[in-house]
Amino acid sequence: MNVFGVDIGGSGIKGAPVDLDRGDLAEPRHKVLTPHPAAPEPVADCVAEVVRHFGWSGPVGVTFPGVVTGSVIRTAANVDKNWIDVDAAELLHERLGMPVTVLNDADAAGVAEMTFGAGKGRKGTVMLLTFGTGIGSALFVDGRLVPNTELGHLELNNHEAEKRAATKVKEDEGLSWEHWARRVQKYLAHLEMLFSPELFIIGGGVSRKADKFVPLLHHIRAEIVRRRSGRRSSHRWSGSRASDRTRRARPPPAPRS
Ligand code: BGC
């Protein structure tokens, strides 16, 4: 069975039909630039454009970069604040005339990874993090999602974590991989102290470059893997194998006596 997936992101609105049996895109995705301001009406126009590009008619799943309860948007850190309190499913259903489901973007990525990818069959506490314009988080306990965790907004050294360690910050501040990895390291260590996950799955666009920074992360007890989909040029996902794992856990440093 196919559904249509659309991601509303800070820099682009991307969509494609998704094959739910294979857990893969059925066609290469189409992207339009996010309008500025990224307010509900112009974004709804872009979503409609992406859906029409494929001549799609059927159920549409939309991922949004903010807290979503039911289908109502509660926060909008990196898009226009006019989204707050908007029933996004209702707005998009009116625009498209198709059934629409809306979910937080990181939660949706997490559900996909737990169903088809790096987290498949994993019990215990699993945390997916997406590094992009902001930092998204999805927390799973024995495969069940704890929605809207929003751990990118945790305070770290007097700063909001995503203002220090999102990929956009690396680009805006021209940070080296080493410098940025030190920030990511502090962030993961903090999350580890709070949640003790057994597995971190690294998602977001930067996961394609996992080899550049994941080997620089040390003293994290949890296993760290990149998301299953690592290739830009192809819409086919590579499959999660042990050899895809970019790094295995190292023991924490011995306490000083
Ligand atoms: C938002 C989250 C979102 C993340 C990634 C954060 O700024 O608050 O809801 O998951 O960015 O887009």
Would you summarize the structure shown here?
With 257 residues, the chain is an alpha/beta fold.
Provide a descriptive summary of the structure in words:
There is one protein chain. With 257 residues, the protein is an alpha/beta fold. The chain folds into 2 domains: 2-98, Nucleotidyltransferase, domain 5; 107-248, 2-Layer Sandwich (Nucleotidyltransferase, domain 5). Helices cover 27% and strands 25% of the residues. The chain is built from 7 helices and 15 strands. It has helices spanning 40-53, 88-96, 105-116, 161-165, 167-173, 177-195, 210-213; strands at residues 2-8, 12-19, 24-25, 30-33, 60-64, 68-69, 72-73, 100-104, 125-131, 135-141, 144-146, 155-156, 159-160, 199-203, 223-226. The strands form 4 sheets. Strands 1, 2, 3, 4, 5 and 8 form a 6-stranded mixed β-sheet that branches. Strands 11-10-9-14-15 form a 5-stranded mixed β-sheet. Helix 1 packs across helix 2 (88-96). The protein is globular and about 50 Å long. It starts with a strand and ends in a 31-residue tail after the last strand. The protein binds beta-D-glucopyranose (BGC).
Topology (SSEs and partners):
Elements: E1 2-8, E2 12-19, E3 24-25, E4 30-33, H1 40-53, E5 60-64, E6 68-69, E7 72-73, H2 88-96, E8 100-104, H3 105-116, E9 125-131, E10 135-141, E11 144-146, E12 155-156, E13 159-160, H4 161-165, H5 167-173, H6 177-195, E14 199-203, H7 210-213, E15 223-226
Parallel strand pairs: 1-5, 5-8, 9-14, 14-15
Antiparallel strand pairs: 1-2, 2-3, 2-4, 6-7, 9-10, 10-11, 12-13
Helix pairs in contact: 1-2
The protein binds beta-D-glucopyranose.
Beta-D-glucopyranose (BGC) binds near residues 65, 75, 106 and 136.
